[in-house]
Amino acid sequence: MADTDSFLHLARPLGPAPIGAQPSTAPLSVVIQPQAIFSILDHSLRRPADQERVIGTLLGTRTEDGTEVEIRNCYAVPHTETAEQVEVDMDYQKQMLALHLRANPREVLVGWYATSADLNTFSALIQNFYGQQGDGTWPHPAVHLTVSTVPGKDIEARTYISAPIGVTAERAADSCLFIPVPYEIKYGEAEKSGLELISGAKDREDRTQVILTDIESLERAIQQVLDMLERVSNYVNNVLDEEATPSSALGQFLMNALSLAPKVDPADIERDFNNHIQDVLVVSYLANTIRTQIDLSNRLATAALTMGTGDVITGTTGGGGEGGQKGGQDRRQNARRGGQQRSNEQ
Amino acid sequence: MPAPTTTLLIEGTFEELVDELAQYIDNLKKTHGDETSNIQAECTQLLEEKKKDDVLKKLVTGSTVLNQAPEKEFIAAYNLLVHLIRQSPNLDVFLPRVCQNLASPVLSSPANGAGLALSILSTIFNTLQPDDESRYNVFFAILRVIRGSANFETLRPQLKHLDQWLAAWEVEEEDQRKLYLAITDVATEAGEEEQAYQYLVRALRTIPADEASTDEARQLSLRALKSALMHPTHFDFQDLTALDAIQALRSSEPIYFQLLEIFTADLVDDFNDFKDEHDGWIEKSGLDGAALNRKMRLLTLASIAASTGQTRSLPYAHIARALQIPFEDVEMWVIDVIRAGLVEGKLSQLNQTFLIHRSTYRVFGENQWREVASRLDMWRASLIGVLQVVQSEKALFLQQKEAEARELEGKIGSLAVGGGGQGRGMGGYSKQRRGDGEVDLE
User: Fold this and answer.
1) pLDDT tens across A127-136, in order?
2) Which of B53, B27, B51 is nearest to B39 (CA)?
3) Domain A29-190 belongs to what topology?
4) Complex ipTM value
């Protein structure tokens, strides 16, 4: 994503506070989960050709004091926009919201998104709709997320909350001040490596990507670390050759990082490693023994069963068959117990 | 793509909005006992004469009364005012006045007044162009409000952008220094010693070399030096010695400078010599002798820990001697120094030694860089070894797979001749063999 814009966020507008709590103007911050961004981008790709931007509702969680908002989920809301007027399908929005809240009772309505970085008076209208009392986010401010989707340019996201403007009620209804607030897109480790893998396919003709095996990713990771080490030691050598200006903070940091390895005697490591190997071997030996035992007892049981059915053929009724089966089960249990005993002995 | 510049979205012409705001201000004044106010009429007249700036002047003058507006209407009304003055080409004329008004307390809301004012000030700040120098003045007003409301916590997360801002505003070094000092004052009042110190050092950095020996520079340097010495968790004095202004103390305040040098690189012994030489000086200059002693001991321990080299262990006796402390207290001091973050390691009570994992170097010189280089090389060498093992194992695995595939093909060929029953027997045999292999491993 793009660099953060230069702005200052010190206080959010004073909103009505829940009963018993002081209204607060503590600043607010937004956390965005990547899956929300993905579905916004997807929505933008599927928009009607004649529509500049599309909008949708953001869902997520909010801390009790309202200072941290997390956007987790979103869905599209159809709307039409012309030069004179804007129309949002309110019924659709209401129903979708109700359904979503039923499926995810922990999430709440936090705001709305638009797939264009522009703000205009329609934005103000929609913002006031989302922030209103009743169906909106009131008493908390609604969060507005803009994701620019201009082809060929970097995707930029911005988050805003709003404050009222104007001294008369009619004026305030269709206008507002957007206050930029800081946001952060949170990736998990798993999401990041998954994305890296997928994005590896974008440069290939056939748009496919083989999933790496463990050993291959280990190899790749080692290569990466080696590259980084190369860069660092280049810098250090330059410092030693007096070509780069030394930074003692950087040096101290490197020294700390390099000292992270605990001080252990090589002999200790060897001893511990050998002990560990022996443990592993014993466990795998035991596991094998038990598996053999189970295999054996299973075979014995099925053998008894065939004998049992053999009895049925010679005998009179199904009772004999039952007996045979029972015998088989008993025998199987015995065999298993024997196996356990043996493993206990070892 | 830059951020949208207009975040104030309101419909209506300038004249309409002026009229509404003027009426609002008049009403507000009347409810507070000022019956004579008639800004609305004056504005209408001025508007007819097309004197936009005069209209705005009237409004801004009248806006002092907004501080008495009810909490809920305060932001809305002020935002409208900000929107209006943004239309004027002479924005700079009005801003100082508005900032001044906002810096005075909001009468209607004693609890949230500062928050309200901050919210308007940050709106003004944000609606100005990022490289507009007026932002500097607005930021100063913000600092004043923050200081008045003891609200440093709110500001702190934003300070990381400060360098970027200063670069964009292209302010003079002297103004930068003023700003840094103002932040230092705010931080000191909020009890954030570390932050205060950081900005004090930054302020010192803005002093050019040829002004390093002026009286102002001397005062500042002394202040920074004292707070560095007295700060309980500040142990790095190298950043100070690198400054021109501090170097100038060498001639103007030789005793202070001597003390600084001792704290930068020397040991407890040198500090004791210093105390003998300047008897009573520490108390006279308002420094806390006990705190200095303690700090010096911690630094000394860090130094001797760093000088152990490859053995990376220190006998208790050695520590006790270097720190001039009783033998029983060694462990306490080591724990203190670990807590201060100067050294990491573990105490071995059995062998009466301290095993060091990591230690801070007080002076990071060429030897230390060499050490870093050699450790990097070692790490790289071992990693290359690991990589080779991985690669050869992978190659081996591929070879085996190929061999197996060939074997299988051969078998299928023979099976086609031999028939089914034999094949099963072969399978059983190979399984048996695998079992044998596992037993062999043990």
Assistant:
1) 888 888 777 7
2) B27
3) Cytidine Deaminase; domain 2 (3.40.140)
4) 0.72
